[in-house]
Design goal:
The chain is α/β, with parallel strands linked by helices and 178 residues long. It has helices at 18-25, 56-71, 131-141, 150-157, 169-173, and strands at 30-33, 47-50, 74-80, 90-93, 96-103, 109-114, 118-124. It is 27% helix and 22% strand. Helix 1 runs antiparallel to helix 3 (131-141) and helix 3 (131-141) packs antiparallel against helix 4. The model is unreliable at 1-7, 13-23 and 161-178 (pLDDT under 50).
Length: 178
């Protein structure tokens, strides 16, 4: 009888890491979560989100719907009051009521609450960010070994925050590589 743990034929497949996948199909409106790439939640961020606009009623429902498919019912979403246009106190998404909290904490994260007190922190990529910068920032945010805060990731990827983006996401996707 052989020990199953030492059999040379039993090698578990390495997990697919989201940073490797992020460059394939990430566009505005995308949320990435790190759910299976690590057994612990030791990093600072649990994922990243790239909304299309700062309109809460347009952007938050699809995020909640997508997250609910993987995490279960979302009960609260915490947003930065100065970064979003008109935050209502609650939204009805599908058949569930989601409470919205607003805090003056900076627009670099959104806090998602599942159940009573299970929290997930997602970095928020500014809506007008070009695709390559957004993909790079999101890939960095979802790395299992990430110890960098969202604001630092965003500053590293877009050192000139507040500067208008050059072209649209479509223009940037069609640009030739160097």
């Amino acid at each position: 009888m052989t020990d199953a743990g030492t059999s040379p034929h039993h090698v578990p497949a390495p997990p697919r890491l989201l940073p490797d996948e992020v460059h394939q199909a990430v566009g505005p409106g995308t949320a990435l979560l790190r759910l299976e790439t690590t057994g612990s939640r030791q990093s600072l961020l649990d994922g990243a989100w790239w909304p299309r606009s700062r309109d809460v009623e347009r952007e938050v429902p699809p995020l909640v719907t997508a997250l609910s498919e993987h995490l279960g019912p979302i009960t609260r979403v915490g947003l930065d009051a100065s970064a979003w246009n008109g935050i209502p106190t609650r939204l009805v998404v599908g058949d569930q009521v989601v409470h919205l909290d607003s805090f003056p904490v900076g627009d670099d994260t959104v806090l998602i609450t599942r159940g009573g007190n299970d929290h997930f922190s997602l970095m928020v990529v500014p809506p007008d960010t070009g695709p390559e910068a957004a993909r790079s920032a999101m890939a960095r945010a979802v790395r299992a070994d990430n110890v960098t805060q969202a604001s630092e990731i965003l500053l590293a990827e877009f050192p000139h925050t507040g500067a208008p983006s050059t072209g649209t996401a479509q223009d940037n996707d069609d640009a030739p590589g160097l």
